Amino acid sequence: MKSEKEIKQACSSPDISVKIGDLELKNPVMLASGTCGYGLEFADFVDPSSLGAVVVKGLSLEPREGNPPPRLAETPCGLLNAIGLENIGLDAFLKQKLPWLMERNVTVVVNILGSTLEEYQRIAARLSESSGVHAIEVNISCPNVKKGGVAFGTDLVQAANVTRKVVEVSSIPVIVKLSPNVTDICAIAKAVEDAGATAVSLINTLLGMVIDIHNRRPALGNVFGGLSGPAIKPIALRMVWQVARCVGIPVIGIGGIATAEDALEFLMAGALAVQIGTATLVDPLASKNVLNGIVDFLTKNNYRNLVELRISS
Amino acid sequence: MAVRHDMNARILLQEEVGPDTFLMRFEATVISEYARPGQFIMIRLCGYEGHDPLLRRPFSIHAADPDKGTVDILYRVVGRGTRQMSGLAPGMALKVLGPLGRGFSLHEERTPVLVGGGLGVAPLLFLARHLKGQGGSVILGAVTSRQLLRLDAFENTGLDLLVATEDGSAGVRGLVTGVLDNLLKDIGSHHARPAAVYSCGPMPMLKAVAGVCMEYAIECQVSIEAVMACGLGLCLGCAVKARHDGYVHVCREGPVFYSDQIDWEQL
After folding, report:
1. Catalytic residue chosen out of the listed positions A77, A142, A186, A246
2. Residue of chain A minimizing CA distance to B95
3. In Å, how far is B19's CA from the nearest CA of chain A?
4. Which residues of chain B form beta strands (DSSP E)?
5. Which of A23, A39, A224, B11 is deepest in the core (most CB within 10 A)?
6. Chain B hits for A77, Cβ within 8 Å
7. What is the pLDDT of residue B52?
8. What confidence category does residue A11 fall into, taking pLDDT thresholds of 50, 70 and 90?
9. Average pLDDT value over all residues in chain A
C-alpha cells in the first residue's frame, strides 16, 4: 500500500511522457541530429537514456566524408554550418554505435538521408528490422549537399514520394524533418501527413551565408550553409505554430531552443516534443537543464501534463 | 572515457605579455589535475545570459599547476570573443570546459625538439615543463623580437632556448625551420638519442617543419588550430583534410597530430 505522502506526490508530479505513434517517450526533450554525434560522445555530461530520445547524426547508406573546410562560421546569436552530412554510414552505425546505445536503454531515433528514393527506402528497411532503433527521422531538407535532400524537401510531390517510400518499409514511427526554406510549410506538412508520416519535426536550418571580407570570399567552403541557434527561434516558433494548426499528426519543435523557457514556448505553440540542437554544442548540459526547467515550470504552475500547456486558438 | 569537466573558473591573473597578447590564469582544480600537454579547453564568458557571441572559444593549455589548482592560457585578441575576454578582471568567472582532445605523445627515449611560431608557443610551455630533465631544445620564432612570447618562462624549463626572428632583431635572422634544419643535422651526427619534434604555429610554418622532419626521417607532432563549435566531437565542424582518407577532426582526433596524418597540400 502506498503512503499518503507517496500518493500526494504521485498526484502532484506532472505527467511529462509523450507519444509519437506507438512510441512512448519518457519526456519531451530530444537531442537534435548533427549536434549529439552518435549519442555516446558526451555521455559523461548527460546520460542519454534520461532524455526523451536521441536523434543520431544523419546516416546515408555509404559513409560520406563531408564538405571541405571551413565548415563553420559564427553569426550574431547563431551558427552557420556546412558539414556536408559527414557520417560513418549505416553499416558502421549498426555495428559500432548501436550496441552501446541498446545496452544503455537509450531511445534511439535515426536520422536518414539519401540522394535517391531507393536509398532512403533501403536505409529505412534496414533500420526497421534492427532492434534498438525506435523511430526514423527522414531528412528531406538538408541544404548542404548538392546531391542531397534539397529537391525532396522543397517540392510537394517529392516530399510526399520519399515519405511514402519510407513508410512503406517501416514498422517503426516515421518522423519527417521539414525544411523552412519553402514558400508554404503547411502545404509540405500536409503532403507528408497524407503520405503516411507518423509525425513531423521542424525546422531544419535556414539557408544562409557569410562573407569573409579580409579574404574577399565566402566564409564557408561550401559557400552556403545552414543557420541554427537562438537567431532562428522566432521563425521556428512561427512555423511550428502554423504546422500544428494544419496537420493532425504530432509536431516536434526544433530551432534555437537553449533554455526551458524556449522549450515551453514551443510546447505552448503546439509542439508535442522539442529537440535541442546548437545549444548542446555551446553547453553539453543544455538538454538536462531544459528538461529540469520544464518539470519545475509545470509543477510550480500546477499543470498536470504537457497538453495543458498548449494554446488552443 | 577521459575525465572532462565544465566548471566556473575564477580568474586569478590577466596580464598583457605581448602585442594584444594576454596571459590568463584561472582556478580550475580538476582540469589542472587531468590536463596533459597539448590538450585544450573551451571557454565561455560567464554570468552572461545572452547568446552573443554564441560559441565557446578553444585555447591550448599553456600551463597547469595541480598543486595550486590553476590553469593558464595564452591568447591574442583577434575578434569579439577574445576582446571581451581581455576586458575581464581577476575575481570574475569564466565557464571552462576541459581538458579536451588528444595531446602530445611523449617519447622519453628521444631528444625533444620543440618548435613554436608566434602564439604557437602556447601549448609548448606546458610540454617543456613536462619534459624537464630530459634535455633537448626549444626553437621559438616570430617576425620581430617584440612578438617573441614568454622567453623567460622557456628559459626556466632547462631546455636549450634558440630564437629566430625574420628581421634579425633577436637571435638568428630567418625562420625557425632554418634553425631546426641545423639542429636536426647536429643531433643526427652527435647524439645517440634520435630527435622527436613537437610543433605549434601558423599552418605554413607547420607545413615547413613537417617537411624538414621528413627530410631527416624524424617523427613530428603538430598542434593544429581550427574554428570549432563544440570541442567534443559532436558537430564535426573542425575538419582538416587527412593525408589518406577524408578528414580528421581537430577537437577529437587532435589537436595534436603526427605530421603524416595531415594532407599539407590541401591547406
Report:
1. A142
2. A283
3. 21
4. 5-18, 21-27, 40-45, 57-60, 63-65, 70-76, 93-100, 111-117, 137-142, 160-165, 172-173, 195-200, 219-223, 239-241, 247-249, 256-258
5. A39
6. 50-52, 54
7. 86
8. low
9. 93
pLDDT band at residue A145 under the 50/70/90 scheme: very low
* Number of Cβ within a 10 Å radius of residue B136: 23
Which has the minimum average pLDDT: A277-281, B40-44, B45-49?
B45-49
The residue in chain B having the minimum alpha-carbon distance to the alpha carbon of residue A72 is: B237
Average pLDDT over residues B15-29: 96
ipTM value, please give it: 0.93
The three-class DSSP label of residue B70 is: strand
Parse chain A into domains and list their residue ranges: 4-64+88-211+231-309
CATH architecture of A4-64+88-211+231-309: Alpha-Beta Barrel (3.20)
Say how far apart CA B239 and CA B256 lie, in whole Å: 13
- Whether the CB-CB separation of B229 and B237 falls below 8 Å is answered with yes
pLDDT at B164: 96
Q: Can the peptide bond before residue B53 be classed as cis, meaning omega within 30 degrees of 0?
A: yes
Q: What is the rounded end-to-end Cα distance, in angstroms, of chain B?
A: 31
Phi then psi for residue A16, to 5 deg, are -110, 15
pLDDT > 90? residue B1: no
> Which among B6, B52, B229 has the least Cβ separation from residue A281?
B229
The single-letter code of the amino acid at A247 is V
Residue A20 preceded by cis peptide, ω within 30: no
